[in-house]
Amino acid sequence: MAGPDFERPDPAVPRDYVSGRTPAATQAADGLAGDAQYFLPGADLPRGWWHWFGSPELVLLIERAFAGSPDLAASRARLRGAEAQLRAQRGLLVPQLGASGSASYGSGGGGGQGAGQGGGGQAGGQGGGQAGGQGFGAEAFTVYTAGASVSYDLDLAGGNRRRVEAAAAEYRRQAQELQAAYLALIGNIVSAALESASLRAQIEAREQLIAGQNESIELARIRVEQGADARADLVTQLADVAALRATIPPLRSQLAASDNRLALLIGSPPAEAEIPRVELADLRLPEAVPISLPSRLVRTRPDILAAEALLARRSAEIGVEAADLYPNLTLDAGFGLFGGAGGLALAAPDAVFNLGAGLFAPLFDGGRREAEVDVAVAAYQEALALYRGQVLGAFVEVADGIRALENDAAALADQRTALEAARESLELARFRRAEGAISQIDVLTIQRRYEEARFAYIDAIASRFQDTAALFAALGSGPLGDAELAGISAREYLDYTHAELEAGRIPEEGL
């Protein structure tokens, strides 16, 4: 068979994702998301890992996205198209049967009776003349034909078999692209939901601080009226509250954009999305972090498997083009009947049978076929480079995720310490202010540090959740099983769409 047989690549894989060794666990801290996370090298991440965050709202968002995402619907349609193309290419491997039939109507004349009943001499001449005149009268007739034919391409060079091989590889590629689309959607949903949760926490923290400062402002007004404080202290405090309040509208804009992004991901208009609220305080940080071996990752991660399937397709396409360099033999057979009714048509049908073979051998084409083989080889080289890049990119994503979890835990512990110190410093400042030991401006300065520490602490919490989800997405295999993929590519979805279009209706979305 022309062309190379595909060999599954065996990329060089490192023993570990990070330099040195994967740490056993992250640092622990007090408070929300402060638990230590334990890395489990060699363990595979199970499907449904998003349940580990303990948020029913997050699970609901993902389920709605599975049902309504336009991107998933498009990817599912591409898989069905690839399956249909595979069926079409398989048809080239079997004999092709055909049938034909026709009926035609016509009229014509004849002179076969011109020597009829006339005798000798004048009588004979008259008889012959009369008979001949009657023979040229027009007569109607109908001719019928029917036939069947069969042809079979022997596929001597294997071009058709390579076409089937290429179509099968494309089907596998689209199946893995669909798996990757599911993973990307899950990652985007988790990321956007956590971003919204973080923004809500930031807004709530600012509103609480503003409420507390408003109480302090009322006390400051009284002290100014009593002459205990200078008005400059009150004005400074009012300015601080106004500045803090001014940070809320941009956060609300970001929150609206994040929620609108979620609406897009689940396939709903923003006004009708009714996005479930995911709150940071309700989330649970997964303690176990399975880390698949690098050699295992290249056999389970969907984007790598899709790149591998593309490589298999390019290999088969070399064979498709190379097969055109060799002779090709086709066998043909046919059987037909023709007959009819009428004056000139046959009274009984006649049968015709034929059997033949056709051979085509390329002799000279100016190097076109060789050039097309070169094009296919270059496409294979490109696919191989893309495959290697996909593998390296996957290793980098996992390595980044491991280091991010390690550093996020340390950052959260430091931010927790900084927040507790800032809170204690603020309490002491307020106590000293009550004793008249420091000015209100001194208190406001310390309060700003506390606010900054509180906002940074919220960001640190969100980062632990965000980076954990990102690492899981980098390690995850496709969420669909073989049976689910077969169900998605089932032909009835195409039949449904075809029937709806024939009826003048737009098919339902999300199929």
TrEMBL record:
Region described as Disordered: spans on this chain: 104-131
Gly residues biased stretches: 106-131
Top-level taxon in the UniProt lineage: Bacteria
Keyword Protease found: no
Location within or outside the cell: Cell membrane
Span of the signal peptide: none
Sample GO molecular function, one term: efflux transmembrane transporter activity
Coiled-coil region list: 161-188, 402-429
UniProt membrane topology term: Lipid-anchor
NCBIfam families according to UniProt: outer_NodT
Protein family: Belongs to the outer membrane factor (OMF) (TC 1.B.17) family.
PANTHER family in the record: BLR4455 PROTEIN, OUTER MEMBRANE CATION EFFLUX PROTEIN
Protein name (Swiss-Prot/TrEMBL): Efflux transporter outer membrane subunit
